[in-house]
Write a structure and sequence with these properties.
By secondary structure, the protein is mainly alpha-helical. It folds into two domains: 3-85, no CATH class; 101-151. The protein has nine helices and no strands. α3 (31-43) packs across α5 (64-76). The radius of gyration is 27 Å and the shape is rod-shaped.
């Protein structure tokens, strides 16, 4: 046996095994979910001895690293099959957006106001300069300003 399976043995109950077989054979599921379910079924030690990692990887069409990661995730989730095969959900978005509803409203109000003296209309770069002068609004790039205005169908004329 491979040492990693001694560290993290995959032991499935009959109901888990039946659920994984049903998932791999019926319905419409994401390919990654089906692949992880097949890996769990192949790594299951409750039915007896498991083949070597290289043999399993070749039979399933995955890498040895995929076998290791699925076994690791199964151990980390405490043997929860659904948490192992489904996609891990991110707790928070990577970066919070600086454009809140209030910032968006102030930006649209500025874009709809009369342009400064000497200018015929607002441009994105001119809005960027004026937003930098206003202390209540965080500094925004002209591309971010354009995205906010486009989202709200605000046309600079």
């Amino acid at each position: 046996m491979v040492p990693s399976r001694k560290k993290r043995p995959v032991v499935l109950t009959e109901s888990d095994r039946a659920e994984l077989v049903r998932l791999t054979r019926t319905g419409v599921h994401p390919a990654s979910m089906i692949m992880r379910a097949r890996v769990l079924l192949a790594l299951d030690t409750s039915a007896g001895e498991v083949d070597a990692k290289e043999v399993l990887a070749a039979r399933l069409g995955v890498s040895g690293e995929t076998l290791r990661l699925v076994a690791k995730r199964f151990a980390e989730t405490g043997g929860d099959v659904h948490a192992t095969i489904s996609r891990k959900q991110r707790a928070l978005p990577p970066v919070a957006s600086v454009v809140t509803g209030e910032v968006e409203a102030r930006l649209i109000a500025l874009a709809c106001s009369a342009p400064p003296p000497g200018y015929g209309r607002w441009s994105l770069r001119l809005l960027e300069k004026h937003v930098a002068l206003i202390e209540d609004i965080p500094d925004l790039d002209h591309s971010t300003i354009g995205r906010v205005l486009k989202k709200r169908n605000c046309v600079l004329t």
